[in-house]
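Support request, please re-run this one:
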Amino acid sequence: MAQNGFAKDPADLGRGYRAADGTELKNGDVLIAAITSCTNTSNPGVLLAAGLLAKKAVARGLKVDPKVKTSLAPGSRVVTDYLQRAGLLEPLTEIGFGLAAYGCTTCIGNAGDLPAGFNEAIVANDLVCAAVLSGNRNFEARIHPNLRANFLASPPLVVAYAIAGNVNVDLMTEPIGKDREGRDVWLGDVWPSTAEVAELMQYAMDAKTFRRLYADLTRDHALWNAVPAAQGQVYDWPRSTYIAEPPFFEGFTMTPGAAAAPIRGARALGLFGDSITTDHISPAGSIKESSPAGQYLIANGVTRADFNSYGARRGNHEVMMRGTFANVRIKNLMIPPRADGTREEGGVTLHQPSGEKMPIYDAAMRYVEEGTPTVIFGGEEYGTGSSRDWAAKGTQLLGVKAVVARSFERIHRSNLVGMGVLPLQFPAGQSWETLELRGDERFDIDVPAVLEPQQEIALTIRRKDGSSETVRLLSRIDTPIEVDYFRHGGILPFVLRELLAA
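Re-run finished. Output below.
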């Protein structure tokens, strides 16, 4: 199916394609399998189950295909301690799930890249390859920009699919693999029983282990303890591409500015469809070399191998604002469709009135230089997904004054207000599509000087042909305290003024 699917020809699902190194790739192939940290660390039962499945698989001679990148990254040293004492860390390591790190990895895009030949084969043949992970995030392009199918699974299922090697394998009706004698091995043959897991739970319920590992967080951390740190009450901002002093308090005064003021002559920075997630708005995964963020890093002496990810560089606003709306899968519907009806992906827009196509960041900065405010238009569920603060911060730093959508995800709507960006909602039955917006219009938004929660606000559309139309939108500044936040230009200056006044 094309809607929420990949529209692949069934005849193509089993066809093999050769990567540059000779590895055969197929649609559905699992290329990343990861037991990740935050979702499962607090549930020792499923981690012990993963270890037991690995132990049984090793005993039967099952192996993970070399093309699958596997990893174990628990959020706590307690996990590896009880896995080791239960005798399960060794079989997990033997089958490929050796300890990689502690903390966020695959589910925030920190799995690292695939072999270059894999990427080339996937792109050239339009392959839908997969990641299977035990994390809690699998939004578009988050795990890896070239892995379009990303599945969340329990830790034992992650190990099982790594062995099966392809998500098209039905583990209920097809074998997971073959043993040393070439006999079929089924999931039920290696799946641990509840009694087997319960027997090992004693290793995960030792209070002494927690006290030993976490009573003194600096003990046995020579590398961390060796990191130099500045002294004193005022932070000495280093010259770094990982962390930088944010501009949110530049020009700060005790008197609020004119945040609640009419917006005149605004341009559309993007026209987006339904279910634009915070990962579309502010990616957490890898950074493309050709993207504004990639070019910024190169200009600052960072090599491609050291780009890391947006998630790792979220302390640097220069990287994060360049990454805003830079997801490789986002579609700005302001860009006309191709001849075959498909849409261009990636964070691009048309600067107006020139009509020049460029990255959204570049267009936003040109509008800022021109003194032109900008507006984002979206569909249903705008801002759905994880409550990423940078989705609102980046929007504000791009100079966006308002986001107009059919509906908002609760937390992102609140975050927009908290950054001084006005969320406006179309009335039922209306959208930017029904208004036939093209992206070359100018917009006036009559923000009243005296704001009230959920009041109607007029949007005037001034079209290229000279005609105009005024529609009434619902302000999604929902509460009196949000009115105060917005009037102060956001929650950060509001809180600072409150602290200084006290």
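DSSP finds 17 helices and 17 strands in the chain. The CA atoms of residues 453 and 478 lie 5 Å apart.
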